[in-house]
Amino acid sequence: MATFLYKLGRLAFRRRHFVALIWVALLTLAGVGAASAPPAGSTSFSIPGTEAQKAFDLLEQRYPGMSADGATARVVFKAPDGEKMTDKANKATVRKTVKELQSGSEVVSVADPYAGHAVSKDGTIAYASVKYKVSGMELEDSAKDALKDAGQDARDAGLTVEIGGDALTATPETGSSEVIGIAIAAVVLVITFGSLLAAGFPLLTAIIGVAIGVSTITALASALDLGSTTSTLASMIGLAVGIDYALFIVSRYRAELAEGRGREDAAGRAVGTAGSAVVFAGLTVVIALVGLSVVNIPMLTKMGVAAAGTVAIAVLIALTLIPALLGYAGRRIKPTGEKSKLLGGGRTPKKPGRPNMGTRWASFVVRRPVAVLLLGVIGLGAAAIPAASLELGLPDDGSQPVSTTQRRAYDLLSEGFGPGFNGPLMVVVDAKDSDHPKAAFTKVGDEIKGLKDVVTVTPATPNKAGDTATITVVPDSKPSSATTEDLVHAIRDKGADITSATDAKVLVTGSTAMNIDVSQKLNDALLPYLALVVGLAFLLLIVVFRSILVPLKAALGFLLSVMAALGAVVAVFQWGWLSGLMNVEETGPVMSMMPIFMVGVVFGLAMDYEVFLVTRMREAYVHGEKPQQAVVTGFKHGARVVTAAAVIMIAVFSGFIGSSESMVKMIGFGLAVAVFFDAFIVRMAIVPAVLALLGKRAWWLPRWLDRALPNVDVEGDGLRTDADRRDPDAEKELVRA
Q1: What is the pLDDT of residues 477-498, one digit of tens each?
Q2: What angle do CA 652, 654, 655 make, to 5 degrees?
Q3: Which helix (H) or strand (E) segment is 374 a member of?
Q4: Ordered alpha helix ranges (H), 594-713
Q5: Backbone CA torsion sign across 402, 406, 410, 415
Q6: Are 113 and 128 a contacting pair, CB within 8 Å?
Q7: Residue 188 and residue 649: Cα distance in Å, rounded?
Q8: Cβ atoms within 10 A of the Cβ of 305, count?
């Protein structure tokens, strides 16, 4: 592989005009496609195989035109102090608002609060339910504006009006902090390279890669049902790895220049060595992201595949566009150790010959491996303790900031009708095979009334055929509570008894039940997914490092970092530690997707640092250095760059903490913390300590397996041979060595 990539790097360096033209054409094509693509359609959240989804599908069949998955809204009214919603003037105001809401072209129905008994017992709060034909993401902006404006007359009359529900679903905003993250990345690159031009290349190529990836996602959003979170995730991952991959190749190019090689040869060698590591690091990320499809949640699969595509683009850009840009830069890119004149180049170093920080740190770890290993493991173990109390759920309006109308509507409904009113359960009774459907409907309602934590059970509402009915159940506790989850399971257990007695099937659905089913499905899929991703990446790393213990150590180190990161997420978003600093206004259960998502993404990113750092150690060991010295050599050449890459990733991910979307905020924080733990504790401390303790055993591989594995030559051994053939003096020097 190294020889092929070496030739590719030299070709891109020589044919830089052609390479640059190709990428400009791809960027233009993606941009035109995004601009001319139809608006994204429905981003329905379906969970195949769950009871809640089966019930939704059944309702679509048995209640034509019901739009079971259509958007809903609750317009909540509160009377001024000393007044009631049943007062004549307030009634007239509310009914006028209901009439305005009914005029919308996408509205299916609007329930009058006074006809539907939607007034609180004390008479101070009432609500009107609005049902739409399409989902919240499909609603026209005009429909959302009409919903927001409908209550203005009521507000002018002195009523408090708030709007809840998914009809006001909005595209998440990341805020200015994302730009700050990129700015921090730029500063780190300038410090690392000592050159504005060299620092600009990774930023430029990463932005081009993300632009192509996100534009492609936008162009395909309508056809493939891709949501806004998909492009946000792709830009988050693509920007981070795009900068890192380019950083490693530019850094290796400058190191090759420092060894006295010509610029074209240096570009080829940089792509052949660091580029090989980029390919395998990119493969681990792609495997982890595409592997999300095993969970069988369409939205998660699409997010993973889209992000994987952006990572693949980042790899291709690093292998081709970076050497092309290096060709354009010429002598303006300095060898390692030299700075541009603008940043202090040409000055005499204060302490010539002094080992760099990476060398000094690695030497310390090699001398004290047991102490460093214990300290690192104990520290990560302590950080992981909060993960033991992890509670999973999906965000609802109760997790929105208190500044939003959705959250205020949620609180008003809880105040007037109880906390469970925000998460009603819909029980669907399928009596098609029952001899007495009406009796079955009645029995289901009576059985549910006898359960704990039930406040209200509405009479069954049958369809026209009379073979299916819906029953609304209002719990006594809030939607995200464990008590409500127990109630869902209790109803389903009763349903099994009812089925055996009446041949009628009982299904529980609604947003609350769907959230419970999603959490269960994700929990069930976590171990198989972990086994698949870690197993495939383990095999890949065996090929890269030609070792058994090094990949095993890499996998165990990842588990430490991801558990510690989950502990940090629980501490902030569930316990509320430092919540003010992170702008977390409402604590609660951790998003159900977070554990499995972090396992996938963090594993891929963790392997980046493993590949980039340990391949330099492997390279030194293969070329004759003793194991402990190889560890020091690997840090001498790789520690500074890996540190810069980690800081850049942390900065980019931290930029998404400013998002208005709680899911994006939590992902950004979780990934930033995980990269910190993995890069600075696992890869920079635990890895060299373990390798120092293992010595030669770290690179042990059974002979039969060594013969069976393909030789991918990540260390660039083939490049030395090719170069020696072209340079007789170098060949003689190699023989003498």
Answers
A1: 888 788 888 999 999 998 888 8
A2: 65
A3: helix 369-384
A4: 594-622, 627-654, 662-676, 687-694, 703-708
A5: positive
A6: yes
A7: 11
A8: 18
pTM of the model: 0.77
Backbone φ/ψ region at 491: left (φ over 0), alpha (ψ -120 to 50), beta: alpha
**Cα–Cα dist 73/380, whole Å:** 44
115 CB-near residues (< 8 Å, 6+ apart)? none
Q: How far apart are the first and last CA of the chain?
A: 26
pLDDT tens for 296-340 read 888 788 888 888 999 999 999 999 999 999 999 888 888 876 655
Q: How far apart are CA 10 and CA 665, in angstroms?
A: 42
* Alpha carbons 485 and 478: distance in angstroms, whole number: 10
Quote helix, strand, coil % in the chain, to nearest 5.
Answer: 70, 5, 25
H or E stretch covering 125: strand 125-132
Q: Which two tokens stand for residue 24?
A: 């400009």
- Map residue 509 onto helix, strand or coil: strand
Within 385-481, residue ranges assigned H as helices are 405-417, 437-449
Long-range contacts of 283-286 (CB under 8 A, 24+ apart): 283/540, 284/537, 284/540, 284/541, 284/603, 284/604, 284/607, 284/608, 284/611, 285/237, 285/241, 285/311, 285/601, 285/604, 285/605, 285/607, 285/608, 286/311, 286/312, 286/604
d(CA 324, CA 274): 16
